[in-house]
Amino acid sequence: LYFLVWPYQKSMLTDKSEDLKKEIVILKEENNALRQEKETTDKDSLQKEQQVKSMVKEVQLAAQKTAAADGYITAAGAYLAGDLNAAAEALAAIAPSENGQVDAAVTQLKQLVFPKVSQVLYISGYGAYSRNQLDKAIQDLTLAMKYDAGVDFSDDVIYFLGRTYEKGDDKAKALEMYKLLLEKYPNTDKKGYAESRIAALSK
Length: 203
Prior knowledge:
Radius of gyration: 38 Å
Structural class: mainly alpha
Order of helices and strands: HHHHHHH
Distance between the termini: 119 Å
Oligomer: single chain
């Protein structure tokens, strides 16, 4: 009887072993397929993320260019209307863009506007300083410095702003202005006075 049963059991064991091998192969294939699908999904997600980041950058650059162009148009309109103060204010608010043509136009308009506005503000600020109208002097001289175009009175603007602060007993701001004067204009004819005031105010 044993000789009859054993071949049968052996056959069944062999069949089960083959089935298990087939299942293992199938599971491996499914696992590989899932892994490949995950890698593909991850790659697609990364590509989409990079595309979105690229689009964000393009939109930011486009917005920057548009803002610079809009600022120039506003400034140019004010300049053509004869409102140099408004033109200067609009120009000062324009940040550099990635558009060379717009940046060049902004620079050219600044060269037309800033020296004139700065000079008017300097004269007004100096007059206010002479009349002891210190708040008015600080306001005008600060704007004159903001619109500085490297003209021959640029050092005087900072110098008298320092004098105004010192006159108003704001020693810290006065010291800051005198140091800025020597930093920006080391050959100014106000150098000796600025150095002496720095020494006095630093005690």
